[in-house]
Write a structure and sequence with these properties.
The chain is an alpha/beta fold. It folds into two domains: 1-32, no CATH class; 35-205, Rossmann fold. The protein is built from nine helices and five strands, in the order αααβαβααβαβαβα.
């Protein structure tokens, strides 16, 4: 089994300070691979949804579930745009709904079933997955694509199945298994996008 870069970093820098220095250097390289054109298109999709009054749904598992919640908060609340809001919703935040669906119908449809109730044609579905192969995320995108939503994927590694399924992808190319750097990059993307939108909203009210 080939070491991924994090294994190499640990092998070469066993002390915490050295590992921290090497990790941050590697993370800078990962961030430098982001396609800013894809990031810009993602922002355009969000702004278009806002103009149309469409909702923006986020979903993901594990660390990506936390990113989904953070994204929805930063767009919906952090922008402080109430007259013309970003209608952002994290499908990861209703524990009762998630556990009911997972228990009754299976974990794979946990997000798709919520979309079947909440989503309308023209809404945006943002699926977040480092591997790009989480079944419940893929099922959510299948539902979005089949029912007239705009699908966006935030991926890592080689993009997995998700990258090829979505209409728009923001891909973080890394070796497989680099969950930390990929999820770091997705959170940086959240703060990048939110920072831009916060300032854009301010210009509208100035």
């Amino acid at each position: 089994m080939t070491d991924n870069p994090l294994d190499t970093i640990f092998r070469d820098a066993r002390d915490p300070e050295g590992f921290a220095r090497a990790y941050l250097r590697h993370l800078g390289e990962v961030l430098g691979r982001l396609d800013t054109g894809a990031v810009g298109k993602f922002v355009e999709v969000i702004l278009d949804a806002r103009e149309r009054g469409a909702r923006i749904f986020f979903c993901g598992n594990g660390g990506s579930a936390a990113t989904a919640s953070h994204f929805a908060n930063d767009l919906g609340i952090g922008t402080r745009s109430t007259k013309k809001p970003f209608r952002a919703i994290a499908l990861t935040d209703n524990v009762a709904a998630m556990t009911a669906i997972a228990n009754d119908d299976g974990y794979d449809v946990m997000f798709a079933r919520q979309l079947a109730v909440l989503m309308q044609k023209g809404d945006v579905v943002v699926a977040i997955s480092a591997s790009g192969n989480s079944p419940n995320v893929l099922r959510a995108v299948e539902h979005a694509n089949a029912n007239g939503a705009v699908s966006v994927g935030l991926t890592g590694f080689d993009g997995g199945k998700l990258k090829g399924m979505v209409r728009h992808a923001v891909h973080v190319p890394t070796e497989k298994g680099e969950y930390g750097p990929v999820e770091d990059a997705h959170m940086a993307l959240d703060h990048l996008v939110a920072s831009y939108l916060i300032r854009l909203v301010r210009t509208e009210t100035a």
